C-alpha cells in the first residue's frame, strides 16, 4: 500500500469518529464501561472474522512484543472509558471538542519521534488551541461549571491517551494491523470486569438506542481502529494529523443537526481556535 493511500485510509477513521459523540448520546444512559464492553466485543469479533477469512489469524499474536499489547489495550481501554464518561458527565458538544484536542497532541508528540524535533510553531499552536478549550469549558464571561469539571477532565484524558497511543503505534510500526482485533477483545473483557465491579446494568430503552449501540461497535468502535492503525503506521502521520482537525467540526455539527447541542458564537470561536492552533502546529512540523 502506498503512503498516500494509507493516509487516506487513516482519514476514513476520522470520518467514523465524527459520529462517535452523536451515537454515544443517542444510546442513552447506558453505563460507560458496559457500553465499552458491548461495542468492543462487536468490533473485535468482526475483526477476527476478517482475519480468519484472510488466513492471517496467527499473525495477530505471533512474535508481537509485550509493550505493543500494553500500548494497544491500555490505549483503547483508557481512551474509551474516559470518553464515554466525559459525554455523560459534561455537555456533549463541549466534551467532544476537548477530547478532540488529540490531533494537536499527535502533532506535538510526533515531533519527539526519531528524526523529528519540537519547534516554536508547535508550542504556539498548542497555546491557541488551549485558548479554544477554555472557551469550550467556560464560554465568554462565565465561570467553569463545577458540576461538569469531572467530565471536562475525562475529556482531556481522552486527548492525551489517544495521541500517545497513535504516536507510539508509529514507533512500533512493525506490529501487524491484525493485533487490533485482539486489542478490541481484551478491551471488551476489561470493560466488562469494570462494569460488573462498579456499575449497574442498564440497556437502551428504545430501538433507536440499540441501533446506535450496534452502529458504534461496527463503525467508530470497530472498523475505525483498523483504518487508523494502517494510517498511522504506513501513511504520513503529520498530514493525517492535519486532516484529523476536521473531526471537531464534523462532530459538533452532527450533534447540532441531531438536536443534542445548540449553535453558539463561543462554540464556533472555540472550534476555530482549536482547529487553527492545530494547523499552526502541523505547519511547523513540515518545516
The number of helical segments is 13
Number of domains: 1
Instruction: Find the structural class using helix and strand composition.
Output: mainly alpha
**What's the pLDDT, averaged over the residues?**
85
So what's the overall shape?
globular
β content, as a range? under 5%
Question: Helix-strand pattern, N to C?
Answer: HHHHHHHHHHHHH
Helix content bin: over 70%
As residue ranges, the low-confidence spans are none
- Give the C-alpha Rg: 18 Å
Please report the total strand number as a whole number. Answer: 0
The main sheet comes to: none
The N- to C-terminal Cα distance equals 26 Å
Topology:
Blueprint: H1 3-17, H2 20-27, H3 32-54, H4 66-89, H5 92-99, H6 102-110, H7 120-138, H8 149-171, H9 179-198, H10 207-234, H11 237-243, H12 246-257, H13 265-286
Helix pairs in contact: 1-10, 1-11, 2-10, 3-4, 3-9, 3-10, 4-5, 4-8, 4-9, 5-8, 5-12, 6-7, 6-8, 6-11, 6-13, 7-13, 8-10, 11-13
